[in-house]
Structures are given as structure tokens and as C-alpha cells.
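Hi, does anyone understand the following?
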Amino acid sequence: MPRRAVIGVNLASYPIHGAGNTWAFLQWVLGFRLAGWDVWMVEDIPSASCIDTSGQKCAPGVSANLSHWNTVVNEFGLSDRATLLFDGESPQRADLINFARDAEFLFNISGHFQQRDVLEVLPERIYADLDPAFTQIWAEVYKSDMHLDFHTKFVSIGRHLGRKDCRSPLAEKTWLPLGVPVVLDYFTNPKPDQPGDVWTTCTHWYGYPQVEYDGGWYGNKSEEFNKLINLPRKTKEKLEIATDLHPDDETTKLFRNAGWNLIDVRPLNTPWQRYRDYLAQSRGEFCVAKQGYVLSRCGWFSDRSATYLALGRPVILQDTGWTDFYPHDEGLLSFHDETSAAAALDEVGKDPVRHARAARKIAEKYCSAPLVVNQFLETIGRAE
């Protein structure tokens, strides 16, 4: 019998224009399956948070949340291996608990799943952190309940957590390193040698409020993009940001006047294939990291960048310490300021096809979902 795991996700909570968010969780679910595991996907959301397609509150049974969940479950063959609970209740609850009794662990992404009667039947409960530095600061400095309790092991894509050169608290936990997966079969470009003309990325501009730790303020991508507002004047490459900024926002006007193209990210996230196609038709991804990742040097790497790489699209990503874990000279390049960003853009512009081919190879060697899952199992001492 295949080994079993329960995977806690958070995709029904973002049912509208949520392709990027959905895939951040789905890569793990499908990755475990590709690695030979029998997995059960689970999520619990409050009924009061349910909305219809226009964003208005509604009953769970007619909600966009349930519709989005069912679409994902049916498309990816999870109909008998997935449970969405509303306020802890679901007709499949008993089936979930029976499965959990034979599972080796809960892989709880960002600690979202909190149903204790399900958790307590699992011998091991692993907290998978996708927001390093912020998770630990919220828990330790701001005393926010990040649902760390009741977990037995802790892993993070912030692979520098715990190192002397990482400026992040640990919230009294030992954080083991975690890779970033992508399911290559769903992110393969039919035209890998035909890169587009425009560098793109998809992003929230502001995210959440800045937090303070050890005398430093840890912010979002907005602070880092602001440092690069004049970048289009320093390169011949075209730069586009798909974002949630309003067209009339003063920041939108400032960036457009400086030579950036800003577009609405929301239509690009429905359906998920449109999201993939937008990435695939790009020249590559150019993106900053959240200020908190940069300041902490936590080693964060973007799950979206992994999908660009899989599509054979080179990535130029601000360094957070991730250069200690991934190659960064061909197909994947780093920068730390405007000068190095312009240099990286110009370098790829000299031979975009060579960098496109190198990008796919990096995804295959470092980000393939079953590979990353097996590395995780070795890290927690459960490799066969």
C-alpha cells in the first residue's frame, strides 16, 4: 500500500482570480502523488467568509469557495481524496479521519488546518512555512497565533532560518529547510525557444503591514519596487508588472511615467491556464522580493519563479540568500540594486534563447516536485 499523508491547504479561501495562490498549494499535493504517495487534501474555512463570484457574502453551498474547490478536485483527480470543511463540518469528515489514522503525517502548509480531532489521530504534524521571517516575527514579536502549537516538526522555504547571518527570530522552533516544487507536466512550454519581448511578474503590491524586529522594519514588495522605479531608463528591455494596484493610484501613475507597464493581475488568474500562458509568453520574470525577505536574508525563493523556470522562461529575482541554493549565472540571475538589475536584464537580452533553455534545465534539476518532496522526506528523516 502506498504511504499516506494528509495535506492541509488554503485554496478555497481565495476562490476568485486565485490561480497563483491555488498552485502554491497544489504543487505540493500533486508532487506527493508523483512521488508515489496516497494523499488527502483538506481545508477548513468559516461559513461567514463564503462569497459569490461578485464578492458578496453567501451560503457555503452556493459559494464561489465551494465551486473553486470542486473545480480543482475534479480536474486533478482528487474527488475521493479531498475534504472541504465549513466550520469544521463536512459529509466526508469520517472518511478523512479514517484515512488520517493510516497516514504518516500531516503536511500543514502555513498551519492553516486546525481541526484538533483530525490532527490528534496523526502521529506527526509538520508545519510548512511559506512566509519566512514574517511567520516567525508575527509569532515571537507580535504574539500572533500562527498555529505553531500542536505541530511536531517545522520546515520553511526560508532555508537560512537559524543561521547567524539570518536576521529573523525563530519563535522558539527549529526550522528545517524546504525546497520549492513545480509539477513540470503542467508547466511545460510548447514554444520554449520563442521567448516574448516583455519581462513580467504577477504580484500583490502592498500585501500586509510592515513589521518590526531588532530595530528594522520588514515590509513588502512595494518598498523594493520603489527603489527600482527608474530601471526602465537603464535598460532596453521592456518591463511589465501584473498587479492589484488601482489604475488611478498615484503609484501606478508614477511607475507608468517612469517606463513600466502596469496591468490588472486579476483577469490573468482565471482560469489557471490563462495564468500559465501569461507566464509562458513572457521574455522571463523580473521581480523583487518582499523587503522582509531581503532584510532578513532568510533564503526565500518564489514558487512563481519556479513555474517561470519550468516554462523555459529565465528569472531575474532579487537576492534573499537563495543564491546559496540555486545556480544564478544562466537562466536564473540575481540582483541587489538598480545597477545589478539592469546588468542582469541586459545579459539575458544578449541571448534569450540560451537563457530560456537553461531555465528549464534548472527547474528539472532543482524544482521538480517529486524531487523536492523526496528531499523533504530526507530532511525530516522519513526517506525510504
